[in-house]
Amino acid sequence: MSLTKEESILEVRNLRTSFFTDEGEVKAVDGVDFSIEKGKTLGIVGESGSGKSITSLSILRLLQEPVGRIKEGEVIFKGEDLLKKSKKQMMAIRGNNISMIFQEPMTSLNPTLTCGEQIAESIRIHQKLNKKKAWEKSVEMLKLVGIPSPEKRAKQYPFELSGGMRQRVMIAISLACNPELLIADEPTTALDVTIQAQILELIKKLQEDMGTSLMIITHDLGVVAEMCDKVAVMYCGKVVEYADVKTVFTDPKHPYTIGLLNSVPKHDEDVEGDLAIITGSVPSPFNLPSGCSFAPRCPSAKEICHATLPELAETSDGDKVRCWIYTDQWEKEGEAVSRHE
Amino acid sequence: MFLYIVRRIFQTIPVMIGVTLAVFLMMHLIPGDAAKIMAGENANPEQIEQMRENLGLNEPLYQQYFSFIGNAVQGDLGNSIRTSRAVTSEIFDSRFWITVQLALVGTVLAVIFGLLAGIISATRKYSFADVSLMVIALFGLSMPNFWLGIMLIYLFSVNLGWFPVAGWGTWEHMILPAITLGTAGAAIIARMTRSSMLEVMDQDYIRTAYAKGVSDKLVIYKHGLRNALIPVVTVVGLQFGTLLGGAVITETVFAVNGLGRLVIDSIRAHDFPMVQGTILVCAVLFVVVNTMVDISYRLLNKRIDLN
Amino acid sequence: MSDQALLEVKELKQYFPIKGGVFGRTVNHVKAVDDVSFTVNEGETVSIVGESGCGKSTTGRAILRLDNPYSGNIYFQGEDLVSLSKSQMRKKRKDLQIIFQDPYASLNPRQTVSQILEEAMEIQKVIPKKDRRKKITELLETVGIGAHQIDRYPHEFSGGQRQRIGIARALSVDPKLIVCDEAVSALDVSIQAQVLNLLKDLQRKFKLTYLFISHDLGVVRHISDRIIVMYLGKIVEVADKKSLFNQPRHPYTQALLSAIPSTNITERRERIILTGDVPSPIDPPAGCRFHTRCPLAFDRCAKEEPKLMSVSGSGYQQVACHLTEESKA
């Protein structure tokens, strides 16, 4: 292991996850690489079908087998490959060293167990505390995530709580055992803006207090800009751009990242006239184009883009981009060719 | 919750009225003159007229209904033509309790075996165990009661001699009829549990449980089954009612003197008050059981209570 | 855009009864929309923004009488929609159309695209039968769906395309006003931008008036002329786009704007984080409904309900807040 990588808590290398359906194989995650530094936040951003959520489920090996299967790759957590661990070893890691928050606080909590019971469950499993101690700890956790009258709330069922409160309970569950890495899959997508602001603030504060590393999966570029240190932009199962947050928002390189940033209607900026758009739509996962998956929608695509998939390569300023434009090859190519369907 | 129970009991009133009306009309609208049949084959017209008068058949239909209800509420369902005893004592002296006992044991067996099979199937989707259990369940569903009963007698009583062939009295008498009765129910519960369980195991909170590091076994029983059981409870309640109906045939096959036999015998003997009374008692029992199921469903699923 | 009011909503209330007790009597009401008045001028895009439960969608549904209003008047071209009979209202729907958030749920899965559009035309009898097929092709062309896809079923389209079909259906009867209820909320960013541009295009082309209901202030800023901010069934602020985004007056509007995560990474603004949740609309707080969460609330806010009043400034702006009123006085 090289010296520069030593501070990273998680390193994903060449991860490939597929779904095997009646209609054929869907390569949901198709060669993904990234790493998360200790105490830092990585954002994975992309639209639906980009494979961002599947990437996060693959890390904890939570896919529904045998339909979904990790075919290849390494997930190195603190120097050890999670994909080589036994089922039992994985159980000891989940919720303890690495935990997860999901998108829908409505459906992600068990409707027939009280909030306190659901928090206490992971405490009892991983910290081997008795029932009473675990309960006390879960009330403490509810207090920590800013739920008023935690003793009372612990005895309530999820449906008695508002969406924001439920997401706080989810956070309490995930942080109950002091994990080193927290994976948040669209943690605020289902919430209203003012509640989203509360939850993001809370996650940030707890992350600082506990020194947790964070991985946020989202489609909301605003959330990425507010929360993350590094960003991986995904499209059709591949990382197309991987850079620190400032670069991505001030000097985006990949045409998809540029298009995505321009498509967002901004609330703090006047836009006169039409929004800049990305034409067309995401290709069907059963029938991905050869070459670069974005080529059919890319305004600058040349012959080579349609023919050959570019590598995720480092540019002069240290960012990684999967695009022919930033290679020596580009100048040798002819004019842009549009191949719309 | 208390309010709900009160409301639920109030809601049974229109159902009860419907049930009594249906039973009453059924007996009065079927072809054939009740008075003629009851007076006997050799009766002369005057005797038939007398019988009609006695039975109140000359009154307008609505009046007949009201007096039927009025008497029924006071526990008077008339007298049996065949035995001349009160219908209520014919029913409640022993027969009712035998049938209820049989139905209860049948239900318990159905629940135990149905749940077990359902859970095994759901957790091993598409495995050999799953496929064979579901094939057996399909058999159980499609086999007619009388045939199953006869087969069980042939196998376990006649060939193996483990259980008595027919009759009632000891627990050994109860086993085969209860199995006969419970098989279809077990099959339905097994299929229901399987599909409900599969649906629940697909829910987001199951993924949350796995993400917490909960073991497979605990995820299935603590998180899965608890939620999967909610719809199954309703089926169990309905099943109990179906069992009462099934008892008619099963009791005949095993020569058990329960309500089922009583209905058959009474129909054969054109014993109108008896048939009417027995059907009414069964219907009321069915309504009571279903009300109880609804209430327990509510207790189990606290979520509805608030909305 | 003209100054002529196309739609005028007056003192609209939408209360939904809550049943309870042994006999299912009405024990209380959900006060989803509570005394709301506003106008929409011809050719204008007015947006209603707010968080879930503020009553924005309920207002939209009440205007089309998808749910009959509890009280109040809705004047469309001077005619009170509330007083119309059911069949009269059905005819009126030719002029008032709605596009929903989930295009899939609002399209019949067993009808092809052309059947869906033809049915809408048939109900309103706007176009003679023989011209319909041509018109359908034209319409689909306008919303960006090729003529070769005309006989396909909704499930064969992507989410963005389905929303285009929903738009085509609304357009098929030549409406004057289209209510867009979270019409682009379910779409991915890149598709959302396409649909927003399309809506703007169509407005120019067909002189449409939009009532745009959304929770996304970025989208709202992009598409609207005027914006109504709602909180717990009440309007807290109405203003033209410029005034609202450059100088929000109501503390709720200010909090709402500052809560949105911004992609502007170089200029970080101060955040106003509201505490707590939105109170229940069954038993809303007395006085100003926002006072329980307002960082600037004072005594008067809990006692007296503020009225919507104009604020002097460069543009058009009305606020319901005691603070602005007192600073003026």
Secondary-structure element pattern of chain A, one letter each: EEEHEEHEHHHHEHEHEEHHHEEH
Shape of chain A: globular
Major beta-sheet overview of chain A: 8 strands, mixed
Order of helices and strands of chain B: HHHHHHHHHHHHH
Low-confidence stretches of chain B: none
Sheet with the most strands, sense and barrel status of chain B: none
Q: Determine the fraction of residues in helical runs of chain B and give it as a percent range.
A: over 70%
Task: Kindly estimate the percentage of residues of chain A that lie in beta strands according to DSSP.
Answer: 15-25%
CATH class of the largest domain in chain B: Mainly Alpha
Structural class of chain B: mainly alpha
Please state how the strands of the largest beta sheet of chain A are arranged side by side: 6-7-8-3-9-10-12-11
GO molecular function, one term (chain C): ATP binding
Keywords (chain C): ATP-binding, Nucleotide-binding, Transport
Protein name (chain C): Peptide/nickel transport system ATP-binding protein/oligopeptide transport system ATP-binding protein
Family (chain C): Belongs to the ABC transporter superfamily.
